[in-house]
Task: structure prediction
Amino acid sequence: MADEMERLTEALSIKFEELSLIHQLSEQLKLDEDPATLCDCLLNELAPCITANTLLIDIERDEESGVRSRMFSTGQLHSPDFIRHAIECVEHYHNDSHQAVMVNNHVVVDESGPWRFIVVPIHGQNQLLGRMIAIREYKSEEFGTVEADLMKSTSMMLGVHLVNQRQFMALQHMFEGMIGSLASALDAKDTYTSGHSTRVADLSVELATRLGFDEDGVARIRMAGILHDIGKIGVQDSVLCKPGRLTEDEFEQIKQHPVLGYEILKGIRPFRKILPAVRHHHESWDGTGYPDGLVGTNIPRDAQVLAVADAFDAMTSDRPYRSGMPLDKVVAIFQGGRGQQWAADVVDVLLSCPEVMHAYSKREPTDS
Ligand SMILES: [Fe+2]
Result:
């Protein structure tokens, strides 16, 4: 009875440790991380729990999602050829690549000596995604079910997470493709300002970074920059592509584009975070802008940054009917409009970075 109790207590303690590890790992795994980070994190957590010369995760190549074959390991290094040969031997010996295999007596030899192995397949959606492998010197004690069970549990979790991660990345990829297609559609329609959106996005990122935006904020402003003028898709070609001066009525049509952009994007959830920037990038600090005549700090911060980047690119870019302004003139306009048309601190950041202004304009200042 006492022996049985002791055996049960030990089994419970092992299961508890296994569950703690799984819980710890599940809290650390993030969908938007690179698979390498995920595998490294998992190996680091697993290494103290399994005595082995090498712990290794071998990810299989997947044509569909573009995942390439990769190997991650802790402990003693082995060549990929050694690992592949070992997997072949183990799986051939057991004639099954779908089950966890523990090999304590079958010896795979290389020049460094015989080894013991545990090879656990990593499955996800009925597909073999890779393998988790533990390698121990033959002279050490045999692997047992404790190590094998721990590896099976973590492999199962890794499999689910890798599938989720691949789906997340595919969605992300599709979303980025959609943004690119929308921007190309606008470029195709508004050939006069081709490339404007990308330049505004890049300059907005420069400014936002210097203004202390966090990583999410910088990513958001990049997307807003690319799509800020998307509403121009809804403006008539005869107005949008008219060289020279616009009539009052034509200008009123152009002024609809921030609201049109807002309406185009508002139905798509991931775009909601950029709606304030898209709608308000033509507001003016003194309240004379459009479409809502917002004043000062009522203008969303992203729109304040975008407005400066947008105006800078519009002033410095060549158009078929006029050349871009020289930088010294652009600087003078920004100095005059600082705190009147644009947020003063955003203008200050731009004017304090001559190297950025030079890089983003096609023309050198006339006095330099
Ligand atoms: Fe605009």
User: Anything to note?
Assistant: Residues 190-360 form a domain with the Hypothetical protein af1432 fold (CATH 1.10.3210.10). The radius of gyration is 30 Å. Confidence is low (pLDDT under 50) at residues 363-368.
